[in-house]
Amino acid sequence: MFSYNFKYELKLLFRSRWIQLLSLILLLLFGFSTFNGKQKVEKRKSVIAMAHDEVRENDTKMLKLLDSLQRGMEVSASPWTLPTRPMAVGNYYPRVAAMEPQPMAFVSTGQADLFTHFVKPTATANDFAMNFTEMTSPVQLLFGSFDLAFVIVYLLPLLIIAFSYNVLSAEKESGTLRLLAAQPISIPNWVLQKLGLRFFWMAVLVIVALTIVLLIMGIDILAEGKLYLVLLAMVLGYMLFWFVLAFLVNLWIGSSAKNAVAMLGLWVLFVLMVPSVLNQLGNTIYPMPSRTLMINEMRELKAEVTKKQDEILDNYLRDHPEYAINDTTQKRSFWHRYMASQHLIKRELEPVVNTYEEQLKKQQRLVGRLKWVSPALTMQESLNKLAGTSTSDYESFRAQVVTFAETWREHFMPFLYNNQEFSSQDYSNLPKFQLTQQSFSPAVAFWPLLLISLGLLSLGLLLSKKGHQKFNLISS
Question: How do the domains of the chain map onto residue ranges?
């Protein structure tokens, strides 16, 4: 019976032109979305490359100035920008702290359209005031990016719904259900076989179309073979979930119209409503402190600190005796007082900033624990992690940039407080930023989706056995 269903289903799909139509739609959707994703990645690489080129150009000028100054030659530069001054190097010749795109970054834009991909920390920049966001189009933020993740998470379930919503109801409405009931197979098993075959053919089409598109776009899937297989596994697991829902709806709803409405309702529930509800729930349970109040508190503290800079400097040197070795012969400048006051401001504002960040982390942990309620949310988050554009990836980048900014600042403190000039020999010792990427677990989405799908399928088969008499009555 299974071999007969296999041949019959394949002939039916070709005669109805479902195979041809699905192939064309998948090629167009995968092709356009992959092209968009790759364009964004190329633009991101170009922007980061330009930033590195600018730093190299400035470094060349700095080394030439240092060489001229060490030779006792006159230079045409403002005194406060001379690279012999350590604070001038720290502020005018910063390093690039960049987040290079991952090999699968074209898959999902994720948070990449909200956060910047590189920062140039300076010696005087406040860690909590560094800007990690970039200007984005409000229209793009409203509608999102048409990337591969959007096609997989939002559009692929709609194709599955159109492909599977009336498997049983069409037989009933055409009057052939009685003939099926006379065959040596139960109605639930027949529906399961029919949907299983459709899942198989659609999986083949998805794999072939995606492979063709990636090869045409010049993406080396052999070099990233493991990640490509992980992507395929996640997509197949996500497809399986929607086919299992179609199996349950076909068994328990009824007419084709009701099946379509039920499947679309489930799509709205899992893809749109549940993620929105979880986001709102996080904002309600863990409300964010007012950022405006935090900024006002920062300004008030700065104004208060400015009035007591000499006293702050004395306390700072008392706490850091290594910077006060030659304090009796030092001439205290603006930079000595300013850097000491910035150290105090950072220490005083740290509890306020930590409160803000802790609330954000609580929201993210809550959504992370409940995201399994929506396979669409699970799939989106997993694709973001695969692409290296998830919220956790950018939080990790931000934390590493803040650490590097502190390292960059502290590198110039001995020069400043010991009245030591910066020389060309010190250039090679300047700190360099090295990003540590987060590891990605291949099982992050596939196994949960597979377990959910198998659980729903088992439940459907169990209930269908209990209601076997109902199917006999329908077919009689």
Answer: 2-34+147-272+445-475
